[in-house]
Amino acid sequence: MREKFQQLLKKIIYINEKIETIATSNNTSKLRITLGVIWNLGLVFFIIFLIGSVFVFSIGLGYFASLVKDEPLYTKGEMRKQIYNYEETSEMYFAGNVYIGKIRTDLEREKTTLDQVSPILIKAVLATEDEYFYDHNGIVPKAVLRGLIQDFTNSSTQTGGSTLTQQLIKNQILTNEVSYERKARELLLALRLEHFMTKDEILEAYLNIIPYGRNSSGRNIAGVETAAKGIFGVSASELNLPQAAYIAGIPQAPFSYTPFTQKGQLKSEEGLQPGIERMKTVLYRMKQAGYITEAEYEEALEYDITKDFKEPESTTIKYPYLTFEIERRAKEIMARISAEKDGIDPKRLDEEENLYEKYIILADRDIRSGGYRIYTTIDKNLYDAMNNAAKEFKYYGHTFTKKVIDPETNQEMEVPDPVQVGSILIENKTGRILSFVGGRDFEITELNHATQAYRSNGSTMKPLLVYGPAIEYGLIGAGSPVVDVKFNYRGWKPKNYIPNEERGIIPAREALAYSQNLTAIRLYDQIIDRRPAELLAKMGFSKLTKGDFENLAAAIGAIDVGTTVEENTNAYATFANGGKFIDAYMIEKIEDVDGNVIYQHAAEPVQVYSPETSYIITDMMRDVFAYGTGAKARSSLKFSSDFAGKTGTSEKYRDVWLVGYNPNISLGVWLGYDKHRTLYQFNNVYFQPSVRINLLWATLMNAAYDAKPDLIASKERFQKPKDVVYASFCGISGMAPSKACSDAGLVRSDLFIRRFVPSAIDNSFVSSETRTVNINGETYLALDSTPQEFTYPASGISLNQDFISKMLGRLGGNPDKLLGESILKVTNTKTFTPDQAAPQPVSVTINGNVLSWSPSASNDVIGYRVYDLTGGSRKLIASVRSGENRSIAVGNGQFGVAAVDITGLESSVSMVQTDGTVEENPVDDETENHDQMPIDNGNENDDENNGNHPQINLPNNQRNQQNRQ
Q: Distances from the Cα of 723 to the Cαs of 464, 720, 756, in angstroms?
């Protein structure tokens, strides 16, 4: 470097002397000043450029140093150990140390040595991946600089630049993470590795670890020996030129260039073309490098490589859903262990995607080659029994087909789209996952519908987000009244399962047992400000969004991302555990190759609900199986136990659920199409969706019982805590009973948390003196001024308007529907707005001694008064209510009829004589209106009974409800 700098300096001095000679000659004297300025400026710019380059180079070195400052200084032994770390495969075990099998390494590899690899393959690899492998010291500065410039300029052409040594470092020590830090570490370690290993050792290791796509059974493969045998059926030492070129080209894009699909099938002609074109590129580079002649190149181009591909081979995994799930969970555990070893808070993996991906790659590599023994909680007998039962179930529903794009061939293909199932069985007190059903067929989809499919949980959300919190907050007890009345909130008009059903005020336990949507939404509206969705987060709901904390539809399961069967069932186990959430788990412990326990699961219970709340909601959900939406499941069981639970259906029947638990275990089951089709079809063949889920839940529970009867058929019952008490309350308001409530037969008794027993006396009733009128066949409340002779006594009570407003809340609704048939019968809830004008007169006729009249044209008439006007006097002889017969028998004389409206105003009197002559308005104007006549209407003013309250009849068969056990 010093010699080059001295040579550069001598050249500058020489050029300077030449310019000086030219500038001082007589012929160029006029240009002397100009040339001098130009030269001096050139020297200044050159010096600035030189200094700038040194400065930039220094900054680059400093930045590089900052990127690798935390890189551990590996010894020769440590580095060689990691490079050659591709030996032992980890093993998996059921509960009780029952062997499952080896970890699906997803990578077959057969070790070979350099002398057992065809020289032509080595030349193909060098020509393609690292032409100057034997000349550089681990990195090629020119290639690194080119890559940096392409990156900074965001060039569409990316030429790479990694040497074989760098690729070896990336695959065995680092990860595929895209970052400057990883690249800097890769460069540093590549330089270091070249000091610890010979070129042949590095090349041999590279040929053993680099991925080569898939073999003829669809397994991922690594290493040239495995690739040669898996793709062509020959050893790496027996490869011919085209075969060697094909294999050498695969690592650039393994899954694009490999000839086989994930299922071990040979790709289509179109799908094979990228690999063949890549082979031709490798052959061209070999010719350019001088490794093959022009004749060999032309002959290889004409070679039909497709005839050499192996015939597809089928391989099956006995427990595919289980194997994949164990691997996924083991990687999560190992990633956190590795991060912690590196001094990184494992919580950061949940927040930083790049960091998470880095440690997942390291963990994946570790468990597939580290020789670990992974012990799980899965009971083999339960797992086999439940999955066999699920396979034999006959009532899932219709199997459709759907078109998808094959990610490997990019071609459209048609695949089955059956009703899928997800189910999980959890031991409540420990959180151990004892068994699960991941889907109908792993060959159709690898998605585990028990642990990874996020779906709307429908009405199974109601106990978790609505009723449980409402009890916890003291808003309700088990039988407290809730409102089942339709509403329109900002254009949203939710309905019950039966669309036209409105049950009015009903007990909370009845609303839950029959899964009424309207009651759940209204109740949630009363507690949403307390953010009950935070309780879901405490119970492991992992995908909650901001909207889920604010959206009323969340009360019926309409959360943005949804939840898994595992999360939903785990949350129900919280009730079984007296309100303690114990996170479900599948990995019990992990041992290293030497038998050292490197991971042991430890439960960390979280108190979400009080034991009192948990018991009360459990008692309410006993009714679901006793007479509610889960009764079919309970009747289909072959054993008895203290079960509680809840069904659920999402919008348009896209998902159906049943989660049930006893003191020992919780079983959750879900049905639905992956494509979110409705299940509500072909019901004449497969039963309605709600029946199917009941039958499937019972089928899986019975299968589990057959495998583990003592565990499943628990004889234990849920025990009532001492602070859960039975208390009486008014069934219409939920308050402490008043005399009026007692007289009405509305006192009930049910479970409460002791400190929340209602103490305020019921004030919902107003009076039992309210009367009604008939107007055009409709019943309305009488006004204070309504003449009493036209009213009907209401055999009941009226409700306080403030109470009605309180019950309907901000969501509103029709007060006529407030008191449904299940508690009380409404006889009059309407009020009439009068027009303040006297009604229109009637027409009267007489036939013999029968006086008749037409109805008044006014729309507020409540009846008619008949007068005897004989001799000029005015005597009331009859009052006839609207709707009654408009005729009476009279004697000889003169008679008149006047219409009376709801305010008490009379029309003018229409008269008739015995000879049939009609005369209008013979009475003085001063006496036309009845409110000026000395006729008593018998109506009393009562400030409490102002005519604005709904009227109630109390049926004889609706009295005190018996206590529920």
A: 21, 8, 10
Is the dihedral angle over the CA atoms 539, 545, 551, 557 positive or is it negative? negative
Q: Phi and psi for 245 in degrees, rounded to 5?
A: -65, -40
- What is the CA angle 790-794-797, rounded to 5? 140
Residue 453 pLDDT class (50, 70, 90 cuts): very high
pLDDT at 234: 93
pTM of the model: 0.68
Q: Which amino acid is at 578?
A: G
Of the candidates 217, 218, 165, 174, the residue with the CA atom closest to the CA atom of residue 194? 165
**Tokens standing for 368?**
């597939």
Q: Which position has the token pair 């109601």?
A: 462
Neighbours of 423 (CB within 10 A): 29
Answer yes or no: are the C-beta atoms of 427 and 588 closer than 8 Å.
no
CB 220, CB 102: distance < 8 Å: no
Contact 330, 374 (CB under 8 A): yes
Rounded CA gap, 321 and 387, in Å? 11
- pLDDT of 337 > 70? The answer is yes
Name the CA radius of gyration of the chain, rounded: 44
Closest CA to 621 of 691, 554, 563, 573: 573
Distances in whole angstroms, Cα of residue 873 to Cα of each of 250, 849, 868: 119, 20, 7
Q: List the alpha helices (DSSP H) in 662-755.
A: 683-686, 689-707, 709-712, 739-743
In this predicted structure, what is the pLDDT of residue 140? 78
Amino acid 945: pLDDT: 32
CA distance 807 to 491: 21
* Contact present, 902 and 783 (Cβ < 8 Å): yes
Per-residue confidence (pLDDT) for residue 288, from 0 to 100: 93
pLDDT value of residue 360 = 93
| Type and span of the H or E element at 548 | none
Q: Which helix (H) or strand (E) holds 748?
A: strand 747-753
H helices present in 739-829, as ranges: 739-743, 801-808
Q: Please say whether the beta carbons of 583 and 570 come within 8 A.
A: yes
* E-assigned strand segments in 76-130: 91-94, 98-102, 108-109
Q: 44 — phi, psi (to 5°)?
A: -60, -50
Nearest to 779 by CA among 833, 815, 831, 838: 831
Are the C-beta atoms of 257 and 245 separated by less than 8 Å? Answer: no
